[in-house]
Amino acid sequence: MARRVQIQLVILFFLLTPGLQGQLDPSNVLVSYSFDDQELATGPDTFAVFQKARGSVQMTTLVRFSGYRSLEIRDVADDGDFPELQGYFKLRSSGKLYLHFALMTASPFDELNIALAGPEWFSLKKNGIGFWLKTREGNLYQYSDSMPKKLLPMDAFVWYGLDVAYNISAGTYGLTIYKEGQEKPLVTLQQQANAPNQPGSAIDKFSFIGDTAEDKSNVTYYVDDVVVGTDEQIAQLPFVAPGRRKLFVDYWNESQRDSRGKPVPLDIVDLSDLGVGLKEVEALKTDGVWESLLQMAAGQTVQSMSSHASSDSSRVLQAVSLWSNGCEALRRGEAAAALGNFEKAESLLPAGKIYGMNAVLSLAALGRWQDVDSRLSAIYAEWQNDLRFPAALAMIGLARQDLELAEQWLRPHAEPVPDEIGLELIRRLRGGPLSASLLDEVRRQFPESWQDVVRDAWVAEQYFFVLLWKGQAAEGQQFARRMANRYQSLGIPNSKWMERMGDAAFFQSNFTEALDHYESSLSGTNNPGILVKLSDVHFRLGDLEKERHYREKVYGSLRQK
Amino acid sequence: MIHNWNRLTVAFLAAACLCLSAYAAPIEPKTVGALIAQGKTAEVKALGPGVLPVMVRLYESSDEAQRTRIAETFCQLGWKSPEAKRVLMKDVHTNNQYLRLQVQWALGRVSNDTDVVDVLLENMGNDANPLFRDKAACALAYDQIHLSEKQKVRLYEGLIHALSDPKLDVRRIALQALSIHTGQTKGFNPEAQVAVRENSIQQWKRWLEEYKSNL
Lengths: 561, 215
Prior knowledge:
The structure holds two protein chains of two kinds. Chain A contains 19 helices and 15 strands. Chain A is an alpha+beta fold. Chain A folds into three domains: 229 residues, Jelly Rolls (Sandwich); 144 residues, Serine Threonine Protein Phosphatase 5, Tetratricopeptide repeat; 124 residues, Serine Threonine Protein Phosphatase 5, Tetratricopeptide repeat, CATH 1.25.40. In chain A, the strands form two sheets. In chain A, strands 1, 3, 4, 6, 11, 12, 13 and 15 form an eight-stranded antiparallel beta sheet that branches. Chain A has a seven-stranded antiparallel beta sheet with strand order 2-5-14-7-8-9-10, with no helix packed on it. Chain B has twelve helices and no strands. About 8% of the residues of chain B have low confidence. At the A-B interface, strand 10 of A face helix 11 and helix 12 of B.
């Protein structure tokens, strides 16, 4: 039963990964979404997102097949609708079409549906659904010749790579399915009748949704690396290939490329960065301003907005608008204006952690170092395991002076560990996570010199990242080793500097040494930042079992949902 | 812009409705009757599934005109209800044209019981009135929204069996219903000679066996 719903926009980020770009002729690629990096507006030539009811379609960094984001589709039973990503491409009514994507479900017993369809939309008829996959009772099914046919039992939280070679003229397709960590495909089928068994059934769209029937699905699943095109090589793209998986250092490299040595605002990776949680989303939808929020979050101008929004929704919209203006101002070099916007946004929506960090980056651009140090200390705890944090520290370190002066300025402070290190407070400041309460204690203990004390704690870390930023990883590793040894001799926990030694080794492609340092740094804890790096280093060493072991330690919270 | 997945349900059982109905004041039959009489289905829906027993009682005490409107409302709500099925089944052979059509359309939207499919197949094949036969086929094609893939076996068996019916219109509407469900005709021509038709029917039977083997 076709029902009209309003398109909802969502922040989506699209770009061919360099690995794919190198292998395919772009003119043969109709669609390619890796859900990383760049923004693209929704529209009739790209895609639409439907999330009218309680379900959602959004980017997530929790799991990803490649890069650092994937698309999460979350359905909610009995809410009267289903979430959907619907993508469009030029109508193909003959020849062959290739579809490549990665799929992971958190709940195999909840229904999901994936389809290629034509002008007759998602009905079983010629020019309607051509290719159709669905899950039922823990298994993945294909819908071929108007009937469901079982393909394989699905494991939760395991990536599956799917390649479809769809022969439009013949009305048949070949299907290959890989399972993460296994070289040989689990499914290899040829000459399968398309969904309605109709030769010449045209195709111009694809869809990822929850359930279509009884509205009983609570599925949460993830999609990544969607490629649709006419190039046969699309069906031969590797499921796991060296260099395709984006590691923590890749985010660093991209930030380095984008900032060009000047502080720029950090990107958001999901709406929670802006302080927009489920409660706010529901309120925005109820007030009819959800679309406006998403347009603002995507950096688009909002032409008109409902004047009937509740005060809570208006506050959220105002904060996000200020943040968006602040980002533009900082990129233009208008740091004072940017700072004002970020500070106002933070006061309106304190739960959004991006406002505070971008305010610090604005302060760095203004050279207000005492404010940088104190405010950075206050937000350290919520940022310390964020993959964007090292890049932020490096930008701040570089901004203290120009590239050469930064090192000269930092070295006198960075090299010597202060003699007064015996003080318990300074031990905590250097050895443990910074927090607002610790900062208050430092202020009380050192009313005259607290800013110097804080700066000393920060400078070493910023100096380290400046060295990495300048490509001097060996010097960075040497510095981190001296810091770790000095800390140890003074009885200060040195796990942070063990981790930095691992970072520097990783940057030098010395993965075995990086592994040793990360394991030493972890020392019985479950620090998610180090677990991600252990996963990455095992991936680089080719040990996919351990890569998954550490990755699942981070994603364990997802299993509990 | 359209979702346009061929969703076979209108089960708008929002959690909010469930919560509201749990704590709301008792639903007044008079109010429900008035809303139905005015065609205000959205407002009936807003009352939540708690309205179903009220509608059933109203149905049992109403004249044919009001029963027609109530059946139409059951159809639009699309909520499963054994009680609704029970009362609707009493009118599934009525000669009141308006009531019959609404009842035939509503049954598949309140129930996925086997006897609903059976009675609609029976009406499609054997009712004396061609209009009722045609609309029973419509109900089998579009309104069996709660049937699982396993439960559809009985529906497909009945429709494929009807391809051999001596009445041309029954063969035609059975094929239409099959085509709506599967997107295929297997080359069946309702007007062709028996031997030609039999060839397509055998294809449909092989298809059904494969369908069953995949369940």
